[in-house]
Write a structure and sequence with these properties.
single chain; alpha/beta; D-Maltodextrin-Binding Protein, domain 2; about 45% helix; globular
Length: about 425
């Protein structure tokens, strides 16, 4: 086996991973396996290189070539390399982010990989990788969204974790009365406002309505959408959000929570590390699931899922399929998602979750407390063109809520044009 990679991550190899992968293969692999990845940040890159190294050790006659491309550059290059000189395996994302490449015939139908045990082990994300009852990729990691909050501030003010909208509003008013903003947020790059819309809409109207809306099947001028914005406006009119949030990135909004000017942040689990780095240990930082708004509606959750796909132009599809089987194995997902590596959640239900307070809470929430469904986040569930227009509208509404009618008119016009 020749590999372009040598990395200390391979020292983490467990016998169970090698055994399960070898068993799954069932035959010797040879030839070249070309993998393109957007895992360019240091920790994800080490994870990617480690997976390639371990898979190569299991298949010594296979020549593996890994090319890692900067994530932003990857987004602009993917269609070109899928069309012109496709690798055998490529990173991407689930749901509507993969739809254009499926519709263009650039991602392979791998429904055969989803037969049997894999379908059960990865059940939570199967829908996000399914188009017209066929599967076009496999997941390797996901992470929860929810409300991260200053437990010490809540304790000082006698507040407990809310479970209903009324409790959320009451907590918020108490915070405001004591000079603390309810939420920090930075909407400079728009997508954070998308998270607020996702949760308010799923809690007001349910996951199924939200999915139909992002699929272009519901009107932005419907009573249901207006009810979502009415709930959002309750918070805006209270002054719940930090001032001038449109001037901050999500990272620039972190200090407001770290220094106690704001009590909570609706955000993905990736915010935990910088909040801890800012001095908030686990006695000061906690997490709760976004509250119920409309009684009886099953809770859906945002859990963005990162994926691997086989391009239709791949030259070594047998090896590519075995690599995907290896990626989703329980042992591999346990390893790559632990706190020393990605620090996220394994999708395989038989994997172990790292002993981290927030990962444990997130895994429990997504596994046991999200009967409504798993959404991928607004800019992945909606087509890119619609997401851009809509998230711009969300930010505008947060700054100028009286502009709602203009915003909804633009969003409805975009829906009729784009879909």
């Amino acid at each position: 086996m020749h590999s372009i990679l040598k990395t200390s991550f391979a020292a983490c190899v467990a016998a169970g991973i090698a055994a399960s992968g070898a068993s799954a293969a069932g035959h010797s692999l040879s030839g070249d396996l070309v993998i393109f990845s957007d895992m360019s940040n240091p920790a994800p890159r080490a994870v990617m290189e480690g997976m390639v190294e371990r898979f190569g050790e299991m298949h010594p006659d296979l020549n593996i070539a890994l090319t890692v491309i900067d994530r932003e550059a990857y987004k602009t290059q993917i269609r070109n390399f899928l069309t012109a000189n496709a690798p055998d395996v490529a990173n991407w994302y689930a749901a509507n982010r993969m739809l254009p490449y499926v519709e263009a015939g650039l991602f392979e139908d791998i429904s055969d990989l989803w037969e049997g045990q894999i379908s059960e082990d990865l059940a939570s994300t199967k829908g996000a990788l399914t188009i017209d009852d066929k599967q076009y990729g496999v997941p390797y990691t996901y992470y929860q969204w929810g409300v991260y909050y200053r437990k010490d501030i809540f304790d000082d003010l006698g507040l407990s974790e809310p479970t209903t909208w009324e409790e959320e509003l009451a907590n918020c008013q108490t915070l405001l009365d004591n000079g603390v903003k309810c939420y920090t947020i930075g909407t400079k790059f728009l997508w954070t406002a998308g998270g607020w819309f996702d949760y308010l809409n799923m809690r007001t109207n349910g996951y199924d309505f939200h999915a139909r809306l992002t699929n272009g099947e519901e009107s932005w001028q419907s009573d249901e959408v207006r009810a979502t914005f009415a709930n959002w406006r309750e918070l805006i009119d209270m002054g719940a959000f930090i001032d001038d949030h449109q001037t901050y990135s999500w990272q620039e909004a972190l200090p407001f929570m770290a220094n106690g000017q704001a009590a909570s942040y609706l955000m993905g689990n990736f915010a935990v590390a910088p909040l801890r780095d800012s001095g908030l240990d686990d006695s000061k930082l906690d997490f709760y699931q976004f509250v119920e708004i409309t009684p009886g509606i099953a809770k859906g959750e945002d859990a963005p899922t990162d994926t691997f796909h086989i391009p239709t132009g791949a030259k070594n599809k047998d090896a590519a399929r075995e690599f995907l089987r290896f990626v989703v194995s329980a042992d591999n997902q346990t390893l790559i998602n632990n706190g020393e590596n990605l620090g996220q959640l394994p999708v395989n239900a038989n994997s172990s979750v790292d002993d981290d307070k927030f990962l444990q809470q997130g895994f429990d929430m997504l596994s046991n407390k999200a009967p409504g469904g798993i959404a991928q986040f607004f800019d992945r569930d909606a087509p890119a063109e619609m997401a851009a227009v809509a998230m711009e509208g969300f930010q505008e509404f947060m700054v100028f809520p009286d502009n709602l009618e203009d915003v909804l008119d633009r969003l409805e016009a975009a829906r009729e044009d784009i879909y």
